[in-house]
Design a protein that fits this description.
The structure holds 3 protein chains of 3 kinds. Helix content of chain A is 56%, strand content 17%. By secondary structure, chain A is an alpha+beta fold. Chain A has 2 domains: 190 residues, no CATH class; 175 residues, no CATH class. In chain A, strand 7 and strand 8 form a beta hairpin. The two termini of chain A are 26 Å apart. Chain B has 2 domains: 29 residues; 184 residues, no CATH class. Chain B has 8 helices and 5 strands; from the N terminus they run ααβαββββααααα. In chain B, helix 3 packs antiparallel against helix 7. The longest helix of chain B has 25 residues. Chain B is globular. The longest helix of chain C has 18 residues. Chain C is globular. Chain C is an alpha/beta fold. Chain C has a single domain, classed as Rossmann fold (3-Layer(aba) Sandwich). Classes of the chains: A alpha+beta, B alpha+beta, C alpha/beta. The interface between A and C is medium-sized, with 26 and 31 residues.
Amino acid sequence: MKSIAIAFKNLQRKKIRSFLTVGGVGVAVAVLVSLMGFDEGYQRGLRSDIDKMGFQVLITAKGCPYEAATLMLKGGGGLRYMDQEVYSKIINDPRVAAITPQLVHTVYDPDKNNGQGGLALYMGIHRSFLDLKPWIKFKSGNWFSQDDAEEVIMGYEAAEFEQRSIGDKIFIPGIEKILTVAGIFERTGTQDDGLIFLPLVTAQNIFGLPDQLTGIGIKLKEISQIAGFEEDLYDEPGIQVISMAEVRGTIFNLISSAKVMTNSIAIIAIFVAVIGVVNTILMSVFERTKEIGVMKAIGASRFDIFRIIWIETTLICVWGGIMGNLFAIIAARLVEHMLRGILPYAPSGHLVVITGGLLLSSFMGAIIMGLVAGIYPALRASSMRPIEAIRRGE
Amino acid sequence: MAVNSFKSVITVFISLGILLITYSASAAVGCTLNDPERDLRRIFPESTGYKTSFHTIEGAGREGLKKKVESLLNDRLDPVYEAEDVPYAYYDVLKGKEVIGRVHGINQKGAYGGIQIILATDLEGNIVDFYYQRISSPQARYFRDESFTQQFIGLGLEDLYRQDMLEKIKQPTPGETEDFFNTLRGIKKNLILLDAFYFDGMQNSRIGKVEKGERP
Amino acid sequence: MSTPVIKANNLTKIYKLFAEEIYAVNNIDLEIRCGEFVSLMGPSGSGKTTLLDLMGCLDSVSCGRLEVLGNEVSCARENDLVKYRRGIISFIFQEFLLIPSLTALENVELSLHFSRMTKERKHSLEIMERVGLGHRINHLPKQLSGGERQRVAIARALAVSPQLLLADEPTGNLDTKSAQEIFSIFKKLNEEDGLTIIVATHNPKLGLQASRTIFLQDGKIISKEKSSLFLEMI
């Protein structure tokens, strides 16, 4: 007859009450695991998204970014351009491992956004594009035949949407231009899948932006050189340098206020669960006053009683922990779906990543929670005087 | 500097975010109505509701359907974009509990991009409305023009196999014929699938009429 | 001459009920020797239960001196009293007081567990056989009759091989036949194993079967003469 068996049998006596208390702990643990899993998943997703951009540093034209964003949202274009000369200056910098110039252009497509009209994006790229994104493979076709060829390469989803194959024509509305499909990329899981790429020179020509660029993506030989590199370009007029590490930090800042709120919710859930556990165990201690008196009368020490009650509390929290972890695993995809709806920017891949370490630590947390919650009821029970407990219980 | 780059960082991400969301939303393989509520009410003003169902060329009891469709179209189905598992959406338009018509769309490869052909039919399978939900072409506006689309109103599947009927249909623009034939193919495919999914083996099957020699 | 199992001098227990002090046990001198079978008799409220609680180290002494097996316990603290309740003194209660969530056998094992005794299972089974419940070991208390429950309680008390068995109205909730059965067990334990037993009862038919009877009234021991009057009253 072990203390754990006694504790177990006690909990079985009031099954519904025990189950509800376990459920309360389970929900709290599930909330916690989901939130921490989200934190992990979001960081991973963001890191992978940014890595898949292929560059550590992005050079863009200077301008009020809010204005540009608003214009873009309203469908008025509003992209800023810089002179291609900047690119020629940086290309020979010894710190640069790979560099690619880009020209993004938007045209109004009345069929976009489910017929409501919207902007279609076209990106002029240079062959060095593939140096920065070595993982990109051609599903069919090849690179543009010439630097100024009237051709496009389509992202996987863009090609699917337009039902294009190699050699097909593609019509660019707005500027009334017809180009030929030279290649289609494999799916990458990034925004590249939805884009249509043109040779940089062709893009500059047909969009009427000779020698203009919207961005330069750069990969450095040593990641530690970023600060110095940024510093050197600081005086260059008309441009700004954005490091992707900075971008990541900003995104985290953007969601950190939301995180504060969700974390508070988790803390409240845990607090409520602890109170629930303490309440349940105290109630059961009071109900069993007489039994506790009897146990003492047949030789149980304070510590024996303390241990039984403590184990009961911990058992509840252990089951709650297991249940909560299962909940969290099962509900992860659902939570992910909900979060995607709420978040301003959600990276690709799984948003909620529940690792073994997370499960283990939340489980340990539940045990600790049980140990803490059990102290007071266990003390109350163990300090009862046997004869009073027996007679009062009558 | 810090404030400025902070701002630009936001911009970059807002734009990328928009990009990502816009494109993933429109990357559906099948062809569904942009806004069923609005679109169906425009076509059938007296409608009170609708019911959506999805059908694919593959599936139980549909063996050989692919071959039949290809033979009726006199063309192969594209192995990627017209694969047998592509779901086709059918909207049964309701007035109270009664079905008063059907609306269904298909994707058709066009000369310069994807074409989405939406047909509304009565319960016999005759066209009561036809429009392009999407057409990417230099001549798009001529194709969308009612003087072109109205010509198909009242036609049934077997009519598209009658030379005299076809000769009556005027092309939207003199020079461009490729997307005109793409449109014909799309309408045929649309009606063939409708017939296969709703009238298979029945007395009023239009495919039956085509096969019984009303085909030229 | 052997050490008395219980030795009390001027033993007093005072309860405070609001402002009033109640002398539940009042100045009792008492000695109980090893191997005795003593019954405590008296009307309700005469102090039988309180006296048993004190001797059983379940309650603290207010004044006077109490020795258990030669050890002074009147000033002992709760933590020290536990030692006596483990394997030295066993208690049997009127209302059995079994743990309802445990089976008969587990109830017996429980006292062994708390008394830090090993071989719980084998020993418990033997004891259950001895009280004639070898066939009911896996029943829960609520599935047993009153007599059977009290026998489980006896088994629980005996399992730890105590030197003193205290029973507070052990037959109070039982019919005459079961009550006699329980008393027969006590007599047998006393005669065959030499176990010292103190039983509180208000049933004279049973109480007088003990080798010595002590009469209590208002917390005091009363003389033989007075007690015969009392016996006639009932």
